[in-house]
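Much of what follows relies on a compact textual record of a protein's fold. The record below shows the convention in full:
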Amino acid sequence: MATVSINKLLKKTESPEGDVKPFFYIQTKWLEDQIIIKLQDSETNNCYQGMVTIDSMKEAAAELDVPYNTYYEECRLALTTHIAMPGCTYKLDEDENALTIWKTQDGSIPMLYMEIPLRTISNHYDILDSAIDELQNKSKTLDERVDKAHKFDQNSRELLEDYRICVEEKNQLERRLLRKVAVLLNSKKQKIAELEDRLSKYEEINDNTDNDGEDETRLMDDTEGEIRPHSSKKRKAVLTESDTDTDEDDFLANTQPLTMAETA
């Protein structure tokens, strides 16, 4: 897609007169295979048109021993800048009918960097018409961007309002949920307290039952302790009589005669 630029360049003259500086009003149209320029001299009011091909620019870059991409970008900047590119001067060679761009680096001798052949044209208002068209296009583009910005702003406001409503609804829902959770927790705490109370009462009853059982066991042990001595005395008496009878029976039992052994 072609791009068009319109700008003003400072014209280099051999003997400038007064404080008024001459300019070139230049229009450049950048195509894929060539560059077309239209130029008007503020001193003579003459108009010119020229063209340079991409192939000729590649040849010039090779002669200057400069990479083509670098050369192309520098030439484009030199033709589309306002007033002048630093280190460059612009001259109109009327003998050769060409626009020449001279470049100076670090105080060196100026060298011819670009040359564009020109021819005189009679349409003095072509650049002005192009400038008006360019302004109209830019104004239209600017209006479209402003409309888009207004629409974007309106959409942003609507989105912000929707976001505010969503946040408010979320906060209300959180508050309702917190209230419900608080009620549920309180009921659970109450039930837990009731269960703990019932458990403590149950444990107290069990403790009392165990104490009663221990008292009964202790009472039974005491009762048996009181009964056991009498039975032991009777048993002792019985044992004594039986032992006496046994001794008497042994004493009254028949005895065998004692015989002496014969001696040889």
